[in-house]
Amino acid sequence: MQLKTEDISKIIKSQIKNYENRIECSETGTVIMVGDGIARAYGLEKCMANELVEFSNGEHGMALNLEEDSVAIVILGSDQGIKEGDTVRRTGRVVSVPVGESMIGRVVNALGQPIDGRGVIDTQEMRPIESPAPGIIERKSVSVPLQTGIKAIDSMIPIGRGQRELIIGDRQTGKTVIAIDTIINQRGKDVICIYVAIGQKNSTVSQLVETLTAAGAMDYTIVVSASASELSPMQYIAPYTGCTMGEYFMAQGKDVLVVYDDLSKHAVAYRALSLLIRRPPGREAYPGDVFYLHSRLLERAACMAPEYGGGTLTALPIIETQEGDVSAYIPTNVISITDGQIYLESELFHSGVRPAVNPGISVSRVGGDAQIKAMKKVAGSLKLLYSQYRELQGFAQFGSDLDADTKRRLAQGERIVEVLKQDRSSPVDVELQVAILYAVTNNYLEDVPVEQIGAFESGLFAFLRDLHGPLLDGIRTSGVLSAENEETLKQAITDFKARFLQQA
Questions:
Q1: 415 is catalytic
Q2: Model pTM above 0.85
Q3: In this model, does residue 462 exceed pLDDT 70?
Q4: Which residue is catalytic, options 139, 187, 296, 365?
Q5: How does pLDDT run across 424-449, given as a tens digit for each residue?
Q6: Is the dihedral of CA 375, 304, 320, 113 positive or negative?
């Protein structure tokens, strides 16, 4: 078989055409120490802070301490296959996570990798986990309410879209329940929710996902989990991962709610990390930049101006206190960063008042701006009446001779407490909240026995839905309780009360 010269020249030409002359240049270093999820490397002179580096066994790490002759790297994964003398390579990019619509409905780890056993997530875009918070010019003031469906919060401590509202309280006082109920209440309200679980048991996260799935909330929710069994670096980056995923949707002009559960464990993970890489400890052994740890995260929550997309990112950080001490280091730090706090009290919780919100310490610094006008109208006096009742309750224990006015205030206060009680996973629409709060603040319930308030409330809601649909629609769509609607509501409450008392 003879080859023709033109065939040979054709082959040579095609090989020259497809020849890629590529020189790969990468800066490498050597691992000089490894242990406890931390590696120290020599030779990465041009390494950036938070840069992603790759070890010879394929594991990745994040450069935190850039020292004179070495770099401290936290390992994002297992340190089992890494040993002294191994090479470590710079990637030239900071730690980034996948973002996109396909993340919705999935459970992922702190690196955005799926852990729900439902296969690979197809995403087109990666975003760095650390990004600067929006500036003053890009923001506008919070004005649209984020309805939680919880009467005690929507009436007295309202949350607006773009706000940062802290949920604080002791262990087992219902902090996570409030956050989950808020997520469930966003169904049909075009809000994308992200729940970040930091340092929790895998079984707890699994149960939570089941609750959200049963309520149909996973259709618009992403769960980011860095469980207690994972290393400190994963728990450290988890909230930033959740925030980054939320910012992707905020940039498209959408409304996002991010729950950080909880930042106490996040601070503990960062403390462990800092001590291992030999950063000097400060108060309570936390490093000096522990305030910046949370401020740079929570400042990324914003209500953007229309010319910058008009999206919002609302943050609900959770902090666990010890023995109700809100003056401890981490609680005071986060209180000073956020726009208010919902304080849950153990005593209230154990006495059957759930949600156990203490209206005295709880506050929303956005206030009435984050309420519809109808709610502002009926709930304006509620916090004052509740606070007066709690004060009078303390005095009433010592004396039996009470004047008629005090007795009336105490009776009204008892009914307010009963009205504000609410079961978990049972959010109430804002128009129905307006109806029952109108009834209790205007003394329509004074002749209804306290133990029957719950039955009265559920009966009134059914009565209004069945017979007064236009009234509820009017309050929901306009957000205002007009004089005409107020008269209709008065009449409806009176009619139902007469029927209720007759049956009782």
A1: no
A2: yes
A3: yes
A4: 365
A5: 889 999 999 999 999 999 999 999 99
A6: positive
